[in-house]
Structures are given as structure tokens and as C-alpha cells.
């Protein structure tokens, strides 16, 4: 007796469902071993990949997991992903660390424990701006509205300490800020000492620092709470161990991190006292 077409179809569907179910479980198991990593885009994407791929390879070698670099073309695009918990791990600015913890529970793991973050306001060397007050109502370039040292702190201190406001022009990256000032497109620009130090000498030597902000704790590498404590421990230990080798120290320096060490959310809570929410863009 031949099986009916209905029986064959039913069996075929059952097999497909079983395979699909098994495939889903397998895919889920595989994805559980691959972690997304977000990097706040202080530099262009090519430079970010050059800096971070060797570090992620070290993590893969040490932990046995896969780490996928998830790019964001601009700081606002990075923030949108951060706010919805898109990244498993992320390198973010200190103010992001506070907000990401509030929104998603991100946990700061490690940071530079030797060199603090400091915003700088740069002008063209030999240009026509010699005093902060001369920037009142002038166009000043910033990487993004919510860049901490390079935008939020500078704008807050210009208003609080000098009682002046400027016209912000957002140009996406720190490197673009410095180029805009060198080319005379804007009168001044906001950055941080660490990114200025990494510019080509022809850019760096064409600029002078007009103003420096207060120091704050620098960028952390943070983890989303969905990542297991075991994985977080492995990642943290591997990152800290980079300081034990010459090659690892070179990798950290490019981030740039001078001396890596553990951190926690309490290191960042003092930022709540700076009144930065006045200038923060949701």
C-alpha cells in the first residue's frame, strides 16, 4: 500500500520542523559564543579596526570565544546602539558609562588608571585667537554633541567659567575636528589630549592648546549584564594581562591606554555633579 500524499507531506513537514528546531538551537549555541564589541568612534573606522582587531584576537586566543567588532559611523549612531543594549562589550566615554548603566545596566570593567581624561580646546598656531573670550558666538568644531571631554565639558566650562557660548559644528570624529581648525574652517575645536597626541605631526604641530578642562576618569571597557560572570571574568583578566607583555602594552597604547587597571561604576558617579545634562542630546 502506497503512503498517501498527505502522509508524505505531513512527515516531510515534521522533518523540516525538527531540523529547523535543531538548527535554531545550534545557531543559538553558536551565537552565544560570539560577542559583539562596540567602540566609540573617536577615529575613522579603518583606524579603529587597526587598533582593536589585534586586541580582539588576543581575547579569542585566551577565552576560546569569538569577538566581532561592530562599527558605528558616528558617535550618535554608537549611542543609539548602546542605549538599546546592542553591544555585549563596549569602549565608551565616561558619561556614556553612567547613562549606559542607567539604560541597560552596563558594567565598567577596566580603564586607564594612570592618565585621566581631559578636554582641550585647540586653535590654529599663529592664528587670530589668543583668548577664550574671543570665541564668544564663534563657530567651534566638536566631534559630536555628547563627546565628553571634547564637547560636553568644554561647553559647560565655557559657560560656567567664562560666561560665553559658541556655535557648535559637529564633524563626527576627533581627527576631523583638528583638520577643520588647521584648515581654518572653524576658529577652534574640541578634543582630548590623547587623540591630539595620535594625530600626524603636520596636524599636531599646526595646533596649539588654548584651554584645558578639569580632569575626569577616562573611558572604560564595559560589559552588558546579559554576559555571564564567567565570560566577564575571562575578558577582564585577559585585558589586564596585556600589560604584562611588550606587545600587549603597544596594543593598549594605541587605544590609547597608558596603564590598564580594574574599575567600577563608582569611579564615574562624580560626573553627575558637573551639570552636563544641559548640553546632552538624546
Q: What integer is the average pLDDT?
A: 90
- Assembly state of the chains shown: single chain
Helix content: 40-55%
Q: Fill in the CATH topology of the largest domain.
A: D-Maltodextrin-Binding Protein, domain 2
Count of discrete structural domains: 2
Give the CA-based shape: globular
Could you provide a short overview of the structure?
The chain has 282 residues and is an alpha/beta fold. It folds into 2 domains: 34-114 and 218-275, 3-Layer(aba) Sandwich (D-Maltodextrin-Binding Protein, domain 2), CATH 3.40.190.10; 117-216, 3-Layer(aba) Sandwich (D-Maltodextrin-Binding Protein, domain 2).
Which helices and strands occur, and which strands form pairs?
Blueprint: H1 5-31, E1 34-39, H2 45-63, E2 66-70, H3 75-83, E3 89-91, H4 94-104, E4 107-112, E5 117-124, E6 139-142, H5 148-162, E7 167-170, H6 174-182, E8 188-192, H7 193-197, H8 201-204, E9 207-216, E10 220-223, H9 229-241, H10 246-254, E11 260-262
Helix pairs in contact: 2-9, 2-10
Organism: hydrothermal vent metagenome
Protein name: Phosphonate ABC transporter phosphate-binding periplasmic component (TC 3.A.1.9.1)
Pfam family, one: Phosphonate-bd
